[in-house]
Amino acid sequence: MPSKSLNIGMIGYGFMGRAHSNAYNRVHNFFDLEYQPVLKAACARSETEVQAFADQWGYDSIETDWRRLIERDDIDAIDICVPNNLHREIAIAAAEQGKMILCEKPLAMNSEEGEEMCQAVEKAGVANTVWYNYRRVPAVTLAKRLIEEGRLGKIFHYRANFLQDWTIAEDLPQGGAALWRLDVAAAGSGVTGDLLAHCIDTAVWLNGSVKDVNAMTETFVKQRQHTLTGKVEPVGIDDACAFLCHFDNGSLGLFESTRYARGHKALYTWEINGENASIKWDLHDLHRLEWFDHGDEGKLRGWRSIHVTDHGGDHPYMDHWWVPGLQIGYEHSFVHQVADFLQSLATGQPCSPTFRDALETQKVCDAVLNSAKNGSWQAVG
Ligand code: NAI
Ligand code: SOE
User: Are residues 121 and 169 in the same domain?
Assistant: First the structure.
């Protein structure tokens, strides 16, 4: 039974506000932990909207100004689920109030902001994590274990894609609720910070640091009406981005992301080729890990599809869920991140990715955008 409460102050009630609230509500039904999250307060600008959200998800109270929320003595941790341009200001103010922080990705608009955020949480000594949730899909965590066991041998290639198709229409406006991702002032960048950031986080976690990058970006629709001003304004985000890179371990990386791949809604895939084995994963089939082992007997050698649902400690996180063979989904990656965060509070260990870990991804994103602008290889700062 939990003996300690962790009072959550949630900022934002959109997609991630819901995904995280679901995770806080469910974690204790499946994980036996010392700390229990309590949904203390939800915050957003519209009183009626945030009250409806609070009622639906079980928050005790609401606020309409995040500054008021972070000043409250009954809040232990601030969860930042708002557009990217607000992450820095909220995180720094929350750290100054001594609050723990769970911040959505990307950490910040750029690495200068990210560095300031790191310094703020480190100075305040508050627990912090960034929601790069795909690390905690059991098949992805299993891949990490297999790599750490040295089963792939020397790694030669890492390739990843994150493909969508929802911004192809030229008359789609930019800015405001739901469309802030198209507005560079709110998002910081397009697919680089929104989608490739996930690919980079997973890659750095699985394959180590990126040394340098060579990128190209494209903005297919050059101007769109802005929802907030009503005017047709230039589009400042990258609609598509592809880059090559060298990893510190000598392997080569190839990454692509776009919102113009007709037919693809959220096709996140990665593949790693090592000297002894190859491994690949696909978000659309997230409970499976594809594995090719060159050490297998010749006549039986081929790609295996591992259904990552087994118990007995073989498959990460799965002992906490249903019986072997029954799979879990997208939302469980957030439950796992909450469970790991709560566990980290009990052990005093950091919950990776911390702000400092996520800054590494931010630096790769910055190098990618600089490379695309300058047309040259860029070292990761
Ligand atoms: P959303 O557009 O669905 O929700 C944004 C929320 O922020 C809304 O509730 C809005 O009312 C609120 N908000 C905006 N300005 C505010 C202010 N000044 N004060 C208080 N509330 C304010 O956005 P979504 O998809 O939830 O994205 C939020 C963050 O989560 C972004 O940083 C995004 O990159 C990240 N994200 C991460 C995902 C992941 O896979 N880990 C998935 C989707 C989003
Ligand atoms: C964009 O559509 C989006 O929701 C990203 O913001 C998320 O980070 C990604 O996980 C899914 O796609």
Answer: no
